[in-house]
């Protein structure tokens, strides 16, 4: 089911996100991802099938990532930006990759 959620939003994803070094970054939030080994087969199947239908040319790889900090940090950053202030953010340390996949 989680893979189907990703497939559902594929047409709306900014094409730039598919072109990065890590492929499409997918941020995984919640304790369900602690069971990744049990979810893996169904997740990959859903993405493979969805890719064939919706985004074969652009969606060639992806990386699953977990936050290192609370998601409230992003909210604070957006709030500060809204009132004209910039918080110093080091995006390279905000998340860690735990799985990468390239379609064959």
TrEMBL record:
Keyword Chloroplast set for record: no
Taxon lineage: Eukaryota, Metazoa, Chordata, Craniata, Vertebrata
UniProtKB keywords: Kinase, Transferase
Molecular function in Gene Ontology: N-acetylglucosamine kinase activity
Keyword Transferase: yes
Gene3D superfamilies, per the entry: 3.30.420.40
Native source species: Molossus molossus (Pallas' mastiff bat)
Coiled-coil annotated residue ranges, if any: none
Domain of life of the source: Eukaryota
Protein name per the record: N-acetylglucosamine kinase
């Amino acid at each position: 089911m989680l893979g189907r959620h990703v497939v559902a939003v594929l047409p709306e994803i900014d094409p730039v996100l598919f072109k990065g070094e890590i492929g499409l970054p997918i941020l995984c939030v919640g304790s369900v991802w602690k069971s990744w080994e049990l979810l893996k087969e169904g997740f990959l199947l859903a993405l493979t099938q969805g890719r064939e239908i919706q985004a074969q040319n652009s969606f060639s790889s992806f990386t699953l990532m977990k936050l290192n900090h609370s998601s409230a940090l992003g909210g604070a950053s957006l709030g500060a930006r809204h009132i004209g202030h910039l918080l110093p953010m080091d995006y390279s340390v905000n998340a860690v990759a735990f799985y990468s996949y390239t379609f064959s």
